[in-house]
Amino acid sequence: MTWNIPNILTLLRLLAAPGVAVMFLYFQRPWADWFALILFVTAALTDWIDGYLARAWKQESKFGAMLDPIADKAMVIIALLVITGFSGMNPWVLLPSTLILFREVFVSGLREFLGDTAGLLKVTNLAKWKTTAQMTAIAVLFATGLFEHEFLDRTSGMDNETLDAIMSGAAEDPLGLTWFAGAAEITFNIGAVLLWAAALLTLITGWDYLRKAMPFLREEANQ
Question: Name one GO biological process term (predicted).
């Protein structure tokens, strides 16, 4: 193992992945949402920073090349589990998340089966766009949870008649309820669209990896 700044950043990103879920165990919402969002976005940024530094400083290594996709997958999978949980198993989140998780498990299994020949499944530019779309969608959906919980906190103990009057514009809105409700709806819609786009890219790249691996799979079958 080569311990340099790019590899250390990658390792920290890997360690941050379970930290996103841990935030919801040790902190009350919306603080947990805030901390999870900040941790996830910070860790996601290191995905670009460590790669840039490794190339700029000529510190690319086999250890970094191995650890980087593992850290990315751990971040995405754990974050999707958390988001699926607090979204109440919403199908607009659950279905693309299922496709993404299925692809990640499938490609990881394919790489393991191919062994020494797994080098043919190199990360493509489209796969990098896929990872970017996934992380952006997750960050936006974490913001949705934040806005939703702020709305719930501010309406706690409020009767339905008063709430309906505020939301319809018939009464003043000193707590900013309409803003939080609107922000939650907008971020959810944007996040869902990005997540479905990421799922589509995930399936395309997964099929590309399978297509490249097919000659080796046929060879194994003939033996």
Answer: glycerophospholipid biosynthetic process
